[in-house]
Design goal:
This protein has 282 residues and is α/β, with parallel strands linked by helices. The protein contains eleven helices and seven strands. It is an enzyme of class 4 (lyase).
Length: 282
């Protein structure tokens, strides 16, 4: 396909809702939603705090085929509570991963794709959300022993908090230029360290540190693609056939990089961070 043909067929992935994203990635006609909005499985805690719940708790679970192979997709809807993870939504993702593990044990190779647009734990559900995220992380680790688990961060919320740890546990991580990835969100850092240390309103500054291009350049993401449905799907299929990045087992290398930063070290800029992470992995 020529560049002109791609331009004419361009379709933004970022502009799609979570359900549309899941449907766009799966093979045509294979999308089947589990525990959808008509099942009315929603948070029991939000109404008690005066917050209107959503019928699917902001998480879409679908089964289908990805280039002919069985796949489960969990897509987080960033338009509901910033994509935050509560008890119900987290349990849906953890349960989907457990179903995929069971399929593999029964001789049905099933991979997983996690569409991560989340600020992390839902503060209104606190410990319940944290427990759900822990179950998601355990599910990722177990499933990747059978089949790949690929995380996709496209934008516009990004992936932060405990779910950023889940992203790091994936076999592979795919990002776009609009994506962001970090343990703490910009507003949290600014609140705790002050605006002089981290200005959450400075978008170029924020993306230079936690944006998709920077994270890919630092080796924290395995693929970097344009915001286009077809290109994301193509790259996703390529990652399915590659060995796992297995960053979780490279902790010693990452700790060595961080040990180079003393308490009195000056604040790094984006270029210095890249240089720090682009050393040869051991």
């Amino acid at each position: 396909m020529t560049d002109t043909e791609r331009l004419l067929r361009h379709r933004s992935f970022v502009e799609l809702g979570a359900r549309q994203r899941a449907r766009a990635l799966l093979d045509n006609g294979t999308f089947r939603e589990l525990l959808g909005p008509f099942d009315r499985l929603m948070s029991p805690w939000l109404p008690r705090q005066g917050i209107v719940p959503q019928a699917d708790d902001g998480v879409i679970i679908a089964k289908g085929k990805l280039a002919g192979r069985a796949c489960v997709v969990a897509a987080i809807e960033c338009g509901f509570q910033g994509g935050s993870m509560g008890e119900v939504g987290g349990a849906k993702i953890a349960g989907a991963l457990e179903l995929a593990v069971e399929d593999n044990r029964n001789g049905i190779p099933t991979c997983a794709v996690l569409l991560l647009e989340t600020g992390g734990v839902r503060l209104q559900e606190a410990n319940l959300g944290l427990a759900a995220i822990a179950e998601i992380q355990a599910g990722i680790v177990e499933l990747r022993g059978h089949q790949p688990v690929i995380g996709v961060i496209a934008g516009s919320v990004g992936c932060f908090g405990g779910m950023s740890i889940a992203a790091g546990l994936c076999s592979h991580l795919l990002v776009t230029r609009e994506a962001r990835l970090g343990l703490n969100g910009p507003q949290v850092i600014e609140q705790e360290a002050g605006i002089e240390e981290y200005n959450a309103g400075d978008r170029p500054f924020i993306w230079s540190f936690s944006g998709g291009e920077q994270r890919h350049a630092c080796g924290l993401a395995d693929a970097y693609v344009a915001d286009d449905v077809e290109r994301i799907r193509e790259q996703l299929l390529q990652l399915l056939g590659q060995p796992s990045a297995n960053r979780a087992r490279q902790h010693a290398w990452y700790l060595q990089r961080l040990a180079q930063l003393g308490a009195e070290a000056p604040q790094l800029d984006a270029a210095a961070v890249r240089a720090l992470y682009q050393g040869d992995a051991q």
